[in-house]
Amino acid sequence: MRIALIHALADSVAPIRAAFAEVWPEATLANLLDDSLSRDRAAEGVLSPALVSRVVSLARYAAGAGACGILFSCSAFGPAIEAAAASVAPLPVLKPNEAMIEEASAYRRVGLVASFAPTLDSVAPEFPAGIALRMALAEGALAALAAGDAEAHDRLAVQAAKRLAAEGVEAIALAQFSLARAAPRVAEATGLPVLTTPGSAVRKLKRLVGAG
Predict the structure, then answer these.
(1) Which of 199, 137, 135 is nearest to 167 (CA)?
(2) Can you name the residues that pair with 28 across neighbouring β-strands?
(3) Which of these CATH numbers, 3.40.50.300, 3.40.50.1860, 3.30.70.3270, 3.30.1330.10, describes 2-96+199-208?
(4) Residue 99 and residue 199: Cα distance in Å, rounded?
(5) CB 103: neighbour CB atoms within 10 A?
C-alpha cells in the first residue's frame, strides 16, 4: 500500500519515517519534497494562489503515481491542503495536525509551539473554539536544526514550551513534524503531556485507508 508523504521542509522527513516504522511498517512510502515551498511561503508572508496551485499539483502527482493516501507534513499550508484534498477526492488526504488536534480536544487549555512562524497562523484556526489556545514561537530553532545543531533546536523548543507552561496550559502541542524530536525534553522540562504530530497522523491515515 503506497502512501505519499509531501514535505515542504527536509527536516520533516525523518520524524514521519520513524513514526511509520513504529506504527505502520507495512506501508510503502513515497516522499515528495519541495523545500522551496517553505522559503517562498515565508518570503511572501501569505498563502498566495501560486503556492496553493503548487501544493495541489503535488497532490495530483501523488494520486497519479498510485498513492492510496496522502499525508502532508508542513503545517503552514492548511487552506492549500484543503484545496489539494478536493482535487484528488475521494483519496484520503490528511493535514499534518488534524489528528493531533483531535487528541488536544481532551484538554481545555493547550499551548502550541512552532518553529516556523506561518505555522501558528495556519494551525491556530483549526483548533476547536472550546480550547483556550496559547502560542509560542521557538525563535531560531528551525535555523538551528537546518544548520545541524539539534541540541540548540531542542533547547529553544523547550524554552518556548516553558513560557506556555507558565501561562497555565494543561498540555503542549508541538505543531510541526520537525519539532517531534524535542518532545521528551519538553515533557521533562514542563511536566505536562506533550502532543506530537507524526504518530497520531500515521494512526489516523492508517484508519482512513482501511488498513487498521
Answers:
(1) 135
(2) 2
(3) 3.40.50.1860
(4) 9
(5) 18
Query: Mind listing the pLDDT tens digit of every residue in the chain (212 residues)?
Result: 899 999 998 888 988 999 999 899 999 999 999 999 999 998 998 899 999 999 999 999 999 999 999 999 888 898 999 999 999 999 999 998 889 999 999 999 999 999 999 889 888 998 999 999 999 999 999 999 989 999 999 999 999 999 999 999 999 999 998 899 999 999 999 999 999 889 889 989 999 988 65
CATH architecture, domain defined by 98-197: 3-Layer(aba) Sandwich (3.40)
Task: Indicate the domain borders of the chain.
Answer: 2-96+199-208, 98-197
Q: What is the Cα–Cα distance from 90 to 93, expressed in whole angstroms?
A: 9
Whether 211 and 24 have beta carbons less than 8 Å apart is answered as yes
Strand order in the sheet with 2-7: 28-33, 2-7, 69-72, 93-94
Q: Sign (positive/negative) of CA torsion 174, 8, 38, 54?
A: negative
The three-point CA angle 140-128-126 to 5° equals 45
Residues whose CB falls within 8 Å of the CB of residue 161, separated by 6 or more in sequence, listed in order: 111, 113, 136, 172, 186, 189, 190, 192, 194
